[in-house]
Fold each of these.
Amino acid sequence: MKLSFSAADETFRAEIAGWLQDNLTGEFAQLKGRGGPGDEHMFHRERVAWEQKLAEGGWTCVGWPAEQGGRNLSIEQQVIFFEEYARARAPGRVGHIGEGLAGPTIIAFGSEQQKQKYLPGILNGTEYWCQGYSEPGAGSDLANVKTKARFDEARGKWIINGQKVWTSLAHESDYCFVVARTDPDSTAHKGLGFFLLKMAQPGIEVRPIEQVTGTSEFNEVFFDDAECDAGDIVGKPGEGWQVAMGLLGFERGVSTLGQQMSFQNELDQIIDIAKRNGAAKDPVLRQRLAKAHAELKIMRYNAMRMLSGQKRNGDLGREGLIYKLFWATWHRSLGELAMDVLGPESQILDGEPYELNRLQSMYLFVRSDTIYGGTNQIQRNIIAERGLDMPKEPKIRLK
């Protein structure tokens, strides 16, 4: 693993830092530090405009292959990109699910037709994606999905029926990638398909889930004879699990670098407040701040380690197995640290409508980090069974 940067890399750093300084001004200046976890509902239209500004400058999809419109940046330069993006306090990315998950999955597993159809909209910041994985009975246990897909031979269409839940930003997305069961008699990870669906169609209903924060970035999505073309299944029927696992590799891959940089911004804000309000003089809080800083560096170095050894189609090896458990637990603790630094008054509000400050929103949001995308308990099972080759957890059979 390389931890240093070459002269060429530092030249690249100056390029992206200069571009951000020149362009994160005027109408975009108000977006600095906005749009992160718990704040994704803010400035949506303005952040979409920022996405398109990034695209005009060639700063979307920077790690994609050049033949797909990306810059084909090295891991080191992708790290630099995210570092400088965070240092400039540039806004949370609206297109991160398309750029970091849907796009790399289509590049790795999709057909040429799918690449031509879907990648340009992601690249130019005009089409946005959401993820159709979790269901009411299949949250951490993705292999338990019940959503079904059948092929209508006469019409040449896949027909999707079922429900997804906790679908981030579904109400603002143009497309959704959906894992559904192509074989109604199959169980577990067999008989699944990976589909690309247009959201604006009669067979799809999106219902916002209002959270304790008062925001609704999560949604339920209902599919009632929703359709997609015959060519909109990635891979073959029955290969959905392989594609879905490849996507999770991308989720724990380069896209994590951007996530870590937003964490750095939050930690920097907390440290700044601690210095101003005197909380940094408390030896216990000072130690917790130092611990948060050290663990964030560990998170970054582990990400660089696993990316340096990245295999084909998003496979990150064993190093990638610990990532979700580590960052989710760290981020939840950061929310608690933020409230302790702010002091007891941070837990008191006048009444509805609750006007939360940035860190209060973050604190409430991060309670979900150890649940969505696989609970901490599920992550520990994955580490034990896949990483340490320990016996699988026994299944409880109810009579």
Note: The chain has a mean pLDDT of 89.
Amino acid sequence: MSLYTLTAEKQQVLDMVRDFCKNEIAPVASELEHADEYPHAIVEKMKELGFFGLTIPERYGGFAIDYVTYALIIEEITRHWMSVAGILNSHLIMAYIVEKYGIEEQKMTFLPKFATGECRGGLALSEAEAGTDVQNISTKATLNGDHYIVNGSKMFITNARYGNTFILAAKTNSKIEPRYKGISLFIIQKGNDGFYVQRDIEKLGYKGVKTCEITFENFRVPSNQLIGGEEGKGFKQVLGGLELGRVNVAARGVGLARAAFEDSIKYAQERKTFGVPICEHQAIQLKLGDMGTKLEAARLLTLNAATKLQNGERSDLEAGMAKLFATEAGFELASEGMRIHGGYGYTKEFNIERYYRDSPLMLIGEGTNEMQKIIISKSLVEKYKI
């Protein structure tokens, strides 16, 4: 943690988030998570405190915090309950895309409402046959006068049940080659006919936050809600948004790794076997040493990617590396933490079983880690091209 320092103002924001997590999330996280209950009260408190405007520029009513502080905030929230970070992250990626690619009218209309949480939501991107392969989406948007008519369906959409505003990826040209040139992004809102939130998808972990299937049947979207005002730019806009997305997923990986490590090192000092705390057994010491090192490495990779993003530099390589390493660390440390907890780790009396169930999602979200390795490799070959 010595490679960066926070100003007094940024530290004050992080301290506020830590207090919020300890007072509002920690006491109820286990109960709500096991009941798979949406944290309505937590979300309302987040709205009051301005969480939904954390990264939105001040001129649009947000706090405009830098991405390093943002990554630390996401780590802190995830350390207490990853689902709450998911509710916030999907929303802020949506805001980031509008801020970066929207025309001024779209920014003025939506960003202030995003900042207050009046309009909340996320990305309507994935489909049953199009996850990592974004260009394979089949949802179509056809221009008809001053509206687009949308037909299709989306799968695994975070915030679909209780959110009201989303960025939709749809094909506005299904014949063009390469196929990604036919993708456009739209700002869509609930309220008009043809927008249907279907079933809540039951999941291994990531509970509380509702992940749903949604369908569109002749759903009308005003043409002035085409992001950027020009068709065919959606694929590039999605990739731009995923730079922030991968930083926040990496930060969630760090948060899970930290939760598993902190719970484990505390338990290892309290639990005794053969007359001594288990932290004095070499087998446990080897695990703790490895866990602490990987946690620190994951955090530094994540903050490096966040710094490059904040500086306006291209950060796809660094964000990909951070996402890959930090999420694998979260998965590994959750597993090692369960081993350290022994039989108790397999019960619902300790939080380690929740970390164990939550961690696999990060290996898949924002692009699978297998795909990340391919992207990283191609970027490295380009960087070191002979």
Note: The mean pLDDT is 95.
Amino acid sequence: MILHFIRHGDTLQSVANQINLENPLYIKEFHNQKCAREDYILDDLVVGKKLFLPDNQTIQKYNAKNDAPFKSPEQNPVINFTPEEFNSRYKINITESSADKRATFKKNSFSYNISLKWIENELNEHVFHLSKSDFSNINDTKIGDLAIACIQSINPIEIRTNFKGEMVRINLLEETAKNFPRIKEKLLDQFPDQYAKIYIEEFEFAVLNSEVFQKKMKEDWFIKTYFANIRNEFKNGKSNVRLYLDGKNSLTDIQQTGLISENYDIILTQSFAGNQPENSAVFTGNYTLSQQQGTIKSLNIYYSYSEYNIIYSIDFQVNEIV
């Protein structure tokens, strides 16, 4: 038995974490068995009072019961991915901002819709078609209109995933690649100035070069979050995910907790795994998934980081259009 004096900020959970006790309710049970009646714990801990804690051997016996809240099936959901016949639309809202030490603040918000349709199972992969439409931008510009026209000109693109819904590769449809000379000609007619011509030629190189196209698509916020490896196995209430968060094509380790809600959706909550990155980055992620199909109903990602004394942030929201 260990004697502990309750300090400011102590809770049953925080003390349990300190002694590696999985279920904090056993602190109350153990203490009340050992203490005088006037020292019973009824609800909250009282600062300054004595608290009797179990020794390591007793802690191991308690942990062997496997009844800690985070070990419950509700907090360790099994997420299957069965998207056959899936066909849905999503509303995407993105807010990007930057601020420097001189309090110079820039903000840009835009939205668009995505259509996502399951096509078939082929070679142990799920095949989806993805299209973007209905763009709106509070900072409308000619170059913005050109970018939108280019994006829509290659609708739909093909996305292949494994059977856990994680992206394997992204392709142009064969028909789109074959007809790209006509697509390019139409874009040049629509945007005839010399700067647009340079942009369209760069776009042509990016979409027809498979390696470049794959890299660009991995930077797309919808693709890299929707088709992430979020359906990994849960253990002790947690699972691990790897996401592409920046434009450096590098993966970041993310930890997520899970919960089956009252209406049987699966709720995932994400944060950085382990130590916070050196660039003072902040990350939070929230997903709602259909328990039946494992498809995503909504997601919200907030990510901010510092680079060259400038703080960049993005708030990315996806909601299924019902």
Note: Residues 1 and 58 are 9 Å apart (CA to CA).
